[in-house]
């Protein structure tokens, strides 16, 4: 793909018909000739014309006079502007905790994206997911011809492509800690997953304190939250103050604690409230409750 550049000029619809095949750029109107633009504002496409060459050799629309574009600054487009074809493949929003994690990460970038939801727990589910994800699991992210699967890989991919989204903390120590607790969530807590599957259709249960290995998982998660909040949450309500990828990884656990009545107090309760009041979570939960698919024992 050719590198993208933006040039600070006006581009008219008429200019699109004048295409320099050597430079592969449309004819542009120089700033000094803006008085010659069409009177109708509808004929002006954009003040930031896109080119595929740092010094385009287009036939400049300057009423026959030559014009040198060199004095004008040409800036390489930031990576965020080059991605317009993102699609995330998800399972049922009511039950797929890993899908929620990938979706929250993508939502945080602010980039437009499409969704493909594959109903889970059906005979055709695995084959349908394999059409999009080589692992046969969700979430998977399509970016043009590329596919990224696994939620941690998606987090790192999006962090590289959207560095301004703040998916990891800026401070090196906080960033290392956030990656560590996210990896622990990614790899562990099997008992909690088994005994407390995410179910956004289920009404919150009576308060209960889990025992056994599930109780040990709950205690470890609460200890992680406390360590993050005590050490790093100085400027916000999330684990590291401002939202980061670690919050996307623990957001489904917040819903589990609410659904299964795990008692929360102090900063853990405040963190739970912050996650549940986050607009992106509200959007996901509303969509989950509107889905037509119901799994009796997710």
What does this structure look like?
The protein folds into two domains: 5-77, no CATH class; 86-290, Glutathione S-transferase Yfyf (Class Pi), Chain A, domain 2 (Up-down Bundle). It contains nine helices and nine strands. The chain has helices spanning 97-109, 125-130, 151-161, 172-187, 190-195, 212-232, 245-259, 266-277, 279-290; strands at 5-12, 19-20, 25-26, 44-51, 74-76, 86-90, 113-117, 140-143, 146-149. Strands 7-6-8-9 form a four-stranded mixed sheet, covered by helices on one side. Strands 4-1-5 form a three-stranded antiparallel sheet, with no helix packed on it. It has a two-stranded antiparallel ribbon with strand order 2-3. α4 (172-187) packs across α7 (245-259). The two termini are 43 Å apart.
Summarize this, please?
The chain is of the alpha+beta class and 298 residues long.
Topology of helices and strands:
Elements: E1 5-12, E2 19-20, E3 25-26, E4 44-51, E5 74-76, E6 86-90, H1 97-109, E7 113-117, H2 125-130, E8 140-143, E9 146-149, H3 151-161, H4 172-187, H5 190-195, H6 212-232, H7 245-259, H8 266-277, H9 279-290
Features:
298 residues; 2 domains; 4-stranded mixed β-sheet; 3-stranded antiparallel β-sheet; 9 strands; disordered N terminus
Number of strands: 9
Number of structural units classed as domains: 2
Shape: globular
Structural classification: alpha+beta
CATH class term of the largest domain: Mainly Alpha
Report the major sheet.
4 strands, mixed
H/E order of the elements? Answer: EEEEEEHEHEEHHHHHHH
**Major sheet: arrangement of strands:** 7-6-8-9
Proportion of strand residues: 5-15%
What is CATH's topology name of the largest domain? Glutathione S-transferase Yfyf (Class Pi), Chain A, domain 2
Poorly predicted ranges: 1-83
Distance between the termini: 43 Å
Q: Radius of gyration from the CA trace? A: 25 Å
Mean pLDDT across residues: 79
- Classify the helix fraction into a percent range: 25-40%
């Amino acid at each position: 793909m050719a590198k993208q550049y933006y040039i600070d000029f006006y581009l008219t619809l008429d200019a699109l018909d004048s295409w320099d095949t050597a430079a592969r750029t449309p004819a542009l109107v120089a700033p000094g000739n803006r008085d010659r633009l069409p009177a109708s504002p509808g004929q002006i496409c954009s003040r930031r014309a896109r080119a595929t060459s740092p010094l385009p050799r287009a036939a400049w629309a300057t009423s026959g006079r030559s014009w040198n574009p060199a004095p004008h600054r040409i800036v390489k487009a930031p990576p965020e502007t080059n991605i317009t074809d993102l699609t995330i493949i998800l399972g049922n929003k009511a039950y797929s905790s890993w899908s929620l994690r990938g979706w929250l990460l993508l939502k945080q970038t602010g980039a437009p994206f499409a969704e493909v939801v594959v109903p889970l727990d059906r005979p055709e589910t695995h084959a349908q997911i394999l059409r999009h994800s080589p692992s046969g699991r969700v979430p998977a992210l399509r970016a043009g011809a590329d596919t990224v699967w696994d939620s941690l890989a998606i987090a790192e991919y999006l962090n590289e492509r959207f560095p301004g989204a703040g998916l990891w903390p800026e401070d090196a120590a906080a960033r290392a800690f956030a990656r560590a607790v996210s990896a622990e969530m990614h790899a562990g807590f099997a008992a909690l997953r088994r005994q407390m599957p995410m179910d956004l259709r289920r009404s919150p249960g009576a308060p209960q304190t889990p025992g056994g290995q599930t109780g040990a998982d709950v205690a470890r998660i609460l200890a992680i939250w406390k360590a993050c909040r005590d050490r790093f949450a100085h400027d916000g309500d999330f684990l590291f103050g401002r939202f980061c990828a670690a919050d996307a990884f623990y957001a489904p656990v917040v819903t589990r604690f609410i659904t299964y009545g795990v008692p929360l107090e102090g900063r853990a309760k405040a963190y739970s409230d912050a996650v549940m009041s986050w607009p992106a979570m509200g959007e996901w939960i509303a969509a989950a409750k509107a889905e037509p698919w119901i799994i009796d024992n997710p």
